[in-house]
Amino acid sequence: MKILVIAAHPDDEILGMGGTILRHRSKKDVVNVAYLASGITSRKRSIDNFDSELEKNEKKWKKQISELRKNALSASKLLKVNNTDFFDFPDNALDSIPLLKIIKVIENLIKKYKPDRIYTNHYNDLNIDHRTVYNATLTACRPLNNIVKELFCFEVLSSTEWNYPYRFNPNYFVNIKNHLDKKIQAMKFFKTEIQKFPHPRSAENIKSVAKRWGTVSGFNAAEAFEMIRKIEK
Fold first, then answer.
1. Which domains does the chain show, CATH number per domain?
2. Is the separation of the CB atoms in 211 and 220 below 8 Å?
3. Which pairing describes strands 222-230 and 172-175: parallel, antiparallel, or unpaired?
4. Do 168 and 160 meet the contact criterion of CB atoms below 8 Å apart?
5. What does the pLDDT profile of the chain (233 residues) look like in tens digits?
6. Burial of 101 by CB count in 10 Å (0-12 exposed, 13-18 middle, 19+ buried)?
7. Using H for helix, E for strand and C for coil, what is the string for the chain?
8. Is the pTM of the predicted complex or chain greater than 0.70?
9. Main-chain dihedrals φ then ψ at residue 225, nearest 5 degrees
């Protein structure tokens, strides 16, 4: 099976499906991951001087983005991802980009990798980038003349569960008992993202969430997904 993961930011895919990526690779499935937004610069900008600050500190942002990409590549190597693509859409501002432009990027990824299944961010996340990536992916996967037969959404801790009302309704569960420790290890490459408990992105909570979905599905540890569409030929 050929898998394409379309994530808004580096680390989304680890939080949402790091164990599932490892499980796919253990079955010799091909897994490619694409990050659409930089995932870092919005936290460093002031609202009043959004553009001028970015221009003034361009060298610093480029260095931090470079470091984030190195972390993402290290995590991808640990998860045995086949290919990793980075794009330069602005962090936390994907809604400022014409949606068609993002759709075209995803359509080109589909042409390049010809995936059987796509995983992407959830449509009801708090983060605007996550919602935008979902909308663009859904459009790029419209059924007419499209090779993608399966579309799934994953949760991202501190985004999916922080939106109210909570609308993540998983109906597909993957046993990650043998992959949970490596998932947490991969997340630890992102030193600016991994936090101390009780933050949702702490190692303790990542393990707790896996245990929680395990209790829902009858496993010791699981990842949960919402199946958006599956087309049988």
1. 2-230 (3.40.50.10320)
2. yes
3. antiparallel
4. yes
5. 999 999 999 999 999 999 999 999 999 999 999 999 987 654 444 444 445 555 555 667 778 888 999 999 999 999 999 999 999 899 999 999 999 999 999 999 999 999 999 999 999 999 999 999 999 999 999 998 789 999 999 999 999 999 999 999 999 999 999 999 999 999 999 987 888 999 999 999 999 999 999 999 999 999 999 999 999 97
6. exposed
7. CEEEEEECCCCHHHHHHHHHHHHHHHCCCEEEEEEEECCCHHHHCCCCCHHHHHHHCHHHHHHHHHHHHHHHHHHHHHCCCCEEEEEEECCCCHHHCCHHHHHHHHHHHHHHHCCCEEEEECCCCCCHHHHHHHHHHHHHCCCCCCCCCEEEEECCCCCCCCCCCCCCCCCEEEECCCCHHHHHHHHCCCCCCCECCCCCCEHHHHHHHHHHHHHHHCCCCEEEEEEEEECCC
8. yes
9. -140, 155
pLDDT of residue 198: 94
What does the block give as tokens for 143? 């059924």
Tell me how far apart the alpha carbons of residues 132 and 113 are, in angstroms, rounded to a whole number. Answer: 21
The tokens for 140 are 């790029």
Structure tokens at 95: 């809604």
Token pair in block for residue 178? 């043998």
Cβ proximity of 90 and 43 under 8 Å: no
Token couple for 16 = 């949402």
